[in-house]
Amino acid sequence: MATVDLVDKERRVKETVELPEAVFGVEVKNxxxxxxxxxxxxxxxSGTASTKTRTFVSGxxxxxxxxxxxxxARMGSSRSPLLRGGGVVFGPHPRSFEMKVNRKAMKAxxxxxxxxxxxxxxxxxxxxxxxxxxxxREFLKVAAALGLSEALLVVDGSSENLTLGIxxxxxxxxxxxxxxxxxxxxxxxQLVLTMPAFAKIAEVFGK
Length: 207
Known about the structure:
The protein is an alpha/beta fold.
């Protein structure tokens, strides 16, 4: 069974923790990761793009020219899709882009993402990430000590000081453990878990 060192904010090793094989040691299934990421990004789309067909374009009630004798093709409305200012054919309409992902498939994708970070030695386990003040410089001290360059920080609950401390840093993101997702895990190079968050992940996904 794989292990990881539990460290404090100054990277002093406190103990060695075993990683549950069912969560951090499964086979990485790329097709599940792809499906989960595509579904998550699709759900973010607003789907509000809209165009008007010839039915909804104003005007066009009068026949633009007589039926015969002009040498032109017959036309009954100036709002035809063939003309400028006319309706749009097969244009976008408001819709939902959400894709269904089965619960078991999503859990399997999360296990694959967590296992990928563990196998790449990009998983860091910290006792806590509380900051003494909501300041960016306070977090940068912790990041320097832990050797973080681009990381997703997963904590149990919410930490206001941590959230405010990293809000100006594009290379870091803090998430409560309840909001952990495949896209963010894969987006950031390193994954940092606090011990309470690690315990909850092991409990939920280890079943």
